[in-house]
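Worked problem 6 (solution included).
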Amino acid sequence: MAAEQDAPTAAVVVDPDGTVSGWSEGGRLLLGWTAEETVGRPVADLLVDPPPPGFPESDGAGPAGFIPLRHRDGSTVDAVVTAHPLFGPGGRALGHAMTVQRWGRRPVIADRAFEQCPFALGVYDPDLRFLWINASSGRVIAHSEEQVLGKKYREVLPEFDRSLFPERDDKPYTDQLSEVARTGKPARLITVFRPLGSNYPNAWATSIWPVRDAEGRVRAVANWGFDMSAEYWARQRLLLLNKASGGIGRTLDVIGTAQELATTAVPGFTDLVTVDLFDEVLRGEEPPSVSAFTPGETIVLSRAAQHRAKEDTDRAPGPTTPVSHPPGSVAARCMATGSSTVELAAEPGQGGEWAFGPGLAADPAHWPPGNPLIDESLVADGLTGRITVPLRARGALLGVVAFSRLDRPEAFTADDLILAEELTAKAAVAIDNARRYSRERTTALTLQRSLLPQGLPNQEAVEVASRYLPGGADAEVGGDWFDVVPLSGARVALVVGDVVGHGLHAAASMGRLRTAVRTLADVDLPPDELLTHLDDLVLHLGVDLQPAGHFQPTGESGATCLYTVYDPVSRRFTLASAGHPLPLIVSPDGTRTPVASQPGPPLGIGGLPFEVTELELPEGSLLALYTDGLVESRERDVDQGIAELQRVLNHSATSLEALCDTVMDAMLPERRTDDAALLLARTHALDPHHVADWDVEPDPSQVPRARKSAVDQVDAWGLEELSFVTELVVSELVTNAIRYGEPPIRLRLIRDTSLICEVSDASNTAPHLRRARTFDEGGRGLLLVAQLTQGWGSRHTTDGKTIWCAQTLP
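Solution. The predicted structure is:
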């Protein structure tokens, strides 16, 4: 049996009458019969079954077919018989020469397997001339084996001699074949090509390998391939969706997100994308309801993004360019119904197949109702197809997106519609997030700006200038703030602070803290005591604002504050810090005045003291109060930022306003992530001639003397109109100090933006207004002072208290 399995092909000669006249040794090895036993016998005796009609006749084109033959031992041999007619002189028929091969032996089974393989198979010589192709390959290239044998690959398939995607720098498939024939190295690749006569590119998985002879020389090159268009384009869609996941929604900017959608889809999916949005969406407002549009009304949107392939730059007209969608238009209908629409420029089958791949996209069942629409007018616009998708998120209509194909002939498929809707849905959520963020940011910014000083108050102690800049477009509004508060005695408080966090809660918390600071400043508390009260306030607010749920913000979670007081009479500068950077002080000669203090704990810690520092400043000193957003960034730490700020402050400037601009330009990066506040102040010293003070003996007989001294000083200042009121208030305040206070008692007049009268004593008891009854002998003094002056109050000092009142200068 081993000999029979390895038997060569049997050769048999049959006369015209069907008698065997020749028998080869291969016949003996294959069937067991010798020449003596077979020659002269009818060839039909070798058959198990009756001979088929015409046997052994053949047209000479190939095998006669599969025929069971009788072995000498009685068994059956499955064989493939091929008959070739023989001719003599003058065309006389001499019979047939037959070849017999065992079915299942490699040459036979391999030939049949390769011929019937569903993959396209081909063999070419080193010059890429066709040597053999199977039936599947013939169907793919639309040529039979006889038509291509001996011809060069480039002659038969010129479309394979160019790349479908030149921008990818792909090698043409013909070059890949030549490379394998030249180098002898096999290759596996995916080839995308557009067959002749088709508008649709096909994707093929192919393998190319060299065919070598016994000596290892490359005698031919072979290839196989199968159509994987459906899988390939599905993968491309997944890759595009993956690209969209990382490319759409990177910024919290409405127009930027619209442009990301347009650039993501071009050129991999389509050639032109336009994104039209409602103006309300661009402003961060709620988009209008679809029901708000009456039938027949033209819908006007704004072109937020437009991107086209093969253009150097995006053509984005900007949010001010209106785009009208008349009633009955596809875009208007899509927005009204909430459904997408596909428009094709030609009927299916015109210019190519309806779709590539296995044809699922061509199945009408895959198309949503009403799709696709055949609109021949698209050709006039240079389009082969367009997909219009309403831009919807969270039930709200934001606008409409149009995906158009211009430069590629293939029309959209049902799978393309699904991809367009997926891209639009992702972009819609990102645009709505950006819109909501824009609205909250605008609200927070408006709230914050309304809580910041709209104009700095009139006072003579310091010249001030300020700047506040919120974080960049991608950052939420923070809680940075500053304030200038006039105090009694011509003094002024300079305050700057920062609330932890961003957004509406930070802005609201900033407003509460600024209001609290102003309230405490009116009480005229020293800086350290004021911060202590502010610390308690933040603690109490934190308890009051505990959330009802687990994920609600709690308001103030911490804050910093720097509170300073400058007295132009004594030129004393007092400060205390609750976790806030200390001020920078530049003397008139440009040298830096160090602040020998350390910032205390941030507000909201509780139970820790705050250190107060007092300095005497020369007139004309420059004070810089700032928040950490000015000096800290990703590129530098706080210490580097403070050093840079010190350097910028040393530059001469014509005014504080100009210096503010210089500082902000030099310190803030283009893409900042935090807001920044800056308050600059140049100190003034009050003219000594505008201050007068006297020691008062604790004796009621000294009251007339104090009145006269005050009236004489007022007259010397040329303020005779204020003499009468001054005489009355000095009499009342000095009398109260002598009666209820403790020595030493001191009277002081200050001529500033108003005429200030102060009486100080060593008692800590604060006076109070009270309503005197008809027959009471006292209790009307402070009420009289309050009625005759424009303001009055008291403040505690380190050695007692001071009662003051102020009159407006004429």
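Discussion: The mean pLDDT is 82.
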